[in-house]
Amino acid sequence: MRHLQGYLLTFIMAGCLFVASAATAVFVEDRLQDTAQELRAREIAKGIRCLVCQNQSIMDSNADLAKDLRGVVRERVLAGDTDDQVRQYLVDRYGDWVLLNPPFKLGTVILWVGPLVLFVGGGFAMVSLLRRKNITNTASTDVSPLSDEEQAEFASLIDQAGGDKK
């Protein structure tokens, strides 16, 4: 039994080491020989949206398309394009959506103004709902005092309840 526990513990520890080493694995891909160009390509890639993940840059994504786009960025940098030319090349192919920080223009105004409109509209809806709820609660909490007849009936009910306990 003791040997079985030792084997089980060894198996669990080996599994943990395997998982830990896999978690720190780095995806190997082509890099530019010139360090300055590689750093430029990485900086550009940080501002390009992964079209699969949609909320990550292509530098942070492990998707195949993100890897391909990193390759395209490196090719354009190697070809001598400026940072703006590389971004424009990608925008021409994929639209302004490919930029994590799209420019403010007529085609992207909904991206910039939409969240503000939704926030303000939600605030107005909440205030309206709370006011309406407050009005209905106020109306339902207005109670008139008991009439003499109701007070007498209430008193008799109290007497009966008290009488049953004795």
Descriptive keywords:
166 residues; mainly alpha; flat
Residue-averaged pLDDT? 82
Unreliable residue runs = 23-28
Structural class: mainly alpha
What integer value in Å does the Rg equal? 34 Å
The helicity comes to 55-70%
Task: Describe the protein.
The protein is an all-alpha fold and 166 residues long. The protein has 6 helices and no strands. The radius of gyration is 34 Å and the shape is flat. The N and C termini lie far apart (69 Å). Mean pLDDT is 82; it is low at 23-28.
Topology readout:
Layout: H1 2-23, H2 35-45, H3 64-78, H4 83-94, H5 109-141, H6 148-165
Short description:
With 166 residues, the protein is mostly helical.
